[in-house]
Design brief:
Length: 370
């Protein structure tokens, strides 16, 4: 980190310079930090445009969190955030709110700096209270002045919600809805790949992957929670995207037909679990145990109804969508008439039910624990 001192010169009316400690106003020192160019470019890609009107979102926020540097940008829908450790002490201007470096012209200037040196880094120099920061190469051969946006940055950490990773009910149990679609704007999907490509280009050649960087996504099954993406070969970097609003969670009939095997498997598994809980209710030794088992069965029945509502156009499944009722006379309800050797008309559904039975047995202990 480089440090340069500045002072304000005072002159008299005859334009003669008068120096002296009592007549010089000490200004904050200019301090510098070196940051990866790839992170600045990735952050610039999600800044709001100049037409947005919210100037604070039109820049890249650089500040300190503990002993790490954070680089953040958001347009209110997308957010890029990176946390990294740099060598040497951090500049004082990174404390508190740090700076918001204007995104206007940032990409072009960073690109020109990278062309002047082998190492893809940018030196950012700034003094507290100044309206501009400078961007330069390692040797200072090229120096660009960049405006600093003098506003308080948004509470970007509010984007990082627990619901992006898990949904819990009031009792702490994991919840989620089968076949719950989450909308993503197609342009944002494209940009995820572009940001990954930008980060990949900023890595040393020996760390780059031939097939492209792997991007991992997180969502706890909540259609309104932000989607979080991280980049496998650049630790400490996230892209957060708010989901697009869907007109309806229902899958089109044409798509539902394509997904029929998976829908059948889901429904068969849920019905198998419901049947098992009905059987447990029969075998219960007390009323409380019986009611708890029936409540579990009802929950699986509701999930079946939700799946069928989201995937219409499958009459072979919908015809069997009647709730699993508590058997009368202590005998479990057969899947089809016993003794007649009948099979379900759809062989794929029969296979799915068999697979679901096997899955239900494997999860039986888990259900009992819940």
């Amino acid at each position: 980190m480089a440090k340069r001192s500045t002072a304000l010169a005072v002159t008299d009316g005859r334009n003669r310079r008068r120096a002296g400690p009592e007549r010089a106003e000490k200004l904050p020192s200019i301090e510098s930090v070196i940051l990866p160019a790839a992170l600045l470019l990735a952050a610039e890609a999600v800044c709001a445009s100049k037409d947005d009107g919210r100037e604070v979102l039109q820049g890249v926020h650089i500040h300190r969190r503990d002993d790490l540097v954070r680089i953040v940008a958001t347009d209110g829908i997308r957010m890029f955030i990176s946390s990294l450790k740099v060598s040497g002490p951090l500049p004082a201007w990174m404390d508190d709110e740090g700076i918001i470096l204007s995104g206007d012209g940032l990409k072009a200037r960073v690109g020109m700096i990278c062309k002047m040196q082998d190492e893809p880094v940018v030196t950012i120099s700034f003094a507290k209270g100044q309206p501009k920061a400078s961007l330069s190469d390692n040797l200072g051969a090229a120096v660009f002045q960049m405006a600093v946006i003098g506003e308080e940055y948004v509470d970007y950490e509010a984007f990082l919600q627990a619901s992006s990773f898990i949904n819990l009910d009031d009792w702490g149990n994991k919840t989620g809805v089968e076949w719950e679609p989450i909308g993503i704007n197609s342009m944002y999907l494209k940009q995820i790949g572009e940001i990954a490509k930008t980060l990949e280009a900023g890595l040393p050649k020996e760390r780059r992957t031939k097939g492209g960087m792997v991007v991992r996504s997180y969502n706890g099954g909540n259609a309104t929670a932000p989607l979080v993406f991280d980049f496998s070969t650049w630790p400490g970097t996230l892209l957060v995207i708010l989901p697009a609003k869907l007109a309806t969670p229902v899958i089109s009939k044409e798509t539902a037909l394509l997904l029929a095997p998976a829908v059948r498997g889901t429904v068969a598994a849920l019905r198998a679990h419901a049947t098992r809980w009905i059987q447990r209710a029969q075998d219960a030794t007390g009323e409380d145990e019986r009611e708890a088992a029936l409540l579990k069965a009802a929950g699986f029945q509701e999930r079946v109804a939700e799946v069928l509502q989201r995937a219409p156009g499958l009459p072979a499944i919908a015809d069997q969508s009647e709730p699993v009722r508590e058997p009368e006379g202590g005998e479990p309800s057969p899947t089809f008439e016993e003794g007649e050797g009948e099979r379900p008309e759809d062989e794929a559904e029969a296979q799915a039910e068999a697979e679901a039975e096997a899955e239900a047995e494997a999860l039986e202990l888990q259900d009992a624990a819940e």
